[in-house]
Amino acid sequence: MKNNKNLTHQLSPEKKVIPSKIRTITFVLEITLILILLAVWFSSESIRESKNLWIFFFYSFPAEFLIAVVPHEPVLLYFSKFYSPLAVTLVALAGTLLAEIINYSVFKYVGDLKPFSKVRHTKWVSKTIEFFNKAPFMALLVAGFTPMPFYPFRFLVVLARYPLPKYVLAIFLSRTPRFYLLALFGHIFKIPDYLFPVVFIALAIPLAYPLLRSLLKKTKRNRRDAT
User: What is the dihedral angle through the alpha carbons of 13, 16, 18, 22, rounded to the nearest 10 degrees?
Assistant: First the structure.
């Protein structure tokens, strides 16, 4: 019996290492996928001008990844000129749901790391989680349907240990009507091509603002430390 117990104790660390390795490999592959799609989008003019719905599907991943660096709406409106609102909605929804599952997986991996696991127990984060838990599903529905920034909720659902199936359901119920209304607008009014770069930049600035602000703060801090 003692030998069996010793054997179990010897094997248990290996059993823990294997899932950890799988999670790490999955995390790296998810990040790599998004970076490749983003690089391909910016490096190929023919892809950016393509009217193939597969292009729109894959664009949804970087456009909905954590704090997105590219806006989703202008491309959705562009494809709405050539396809029915329903077709555009279904493609946008499929890409978005898969992207949100990746978001959940990525942030859960990061959140489980020791330096970040302590964040959940800080006073400000604890209060935010407590407030969110009063009506989490309704909060996700409102955030998913309205133009308000959605990326804080991607982090919050993981910090609050909100179940992935409920999160995906909230995304489905909120994004479906939002995407359809945008696609219907784009299909009816057919925005001229020359306006899309303006719309794209106008929507990209708020998305990039948190990242730029963080970089500027870090640069100023480094300069202070250097002096």
Answer: -150
* Mean pLDDT of the region 104-129: 82
Q: What is the DSSP letter of 14?
A: H
- Dist CA 135 CA 130 (whole Å): 10
Q: How far apart are CA 210 and CA 70, in angstroms?
A: 13
Chain centroid offset of residue 28 CA: 15
Reported as type and span, the H/E element at residue 153 is helix 151-159
d(CA 121, CA 160): 11
The structure tokens 């935010």 sit at: 128
Cβ-proximal residues to 217 (8 Å cutoff; 6+ apart), any chain: none
pLDDT tens per residue, range 162-203:
999 999 999 999 999 999 999 999 999 888 877 777 766 766
For residue range 52-106, list pLDDT tens digits in order: 999 999 999 998 988 777 888 889 999 999 999 999 999 999 999 999 999 999 9
Half-sphere exposure of residue 137: CA atoms within 13 angstroms, side-chain side = 9
Q: How far apart are CA 69 and CA 64, in angstroms?
A: 9
Closest CA to 73 of 178, 2, 155: 178
Q: DSSP secondary-structure letter at 82?
A: T
pLDDT in the model for residue 70: 81
CA 188 to chain CA centroid, nearest Å: 29
Q: How far apart are the first and last CA of the chain?
A: 65
Residue 183: what pLDDT? 96
Sign of the four-CA dihedral 137, 167, 36, 214: positive
Residue 202's CB is within 10 A of a number of other CB atoms, namely: 11
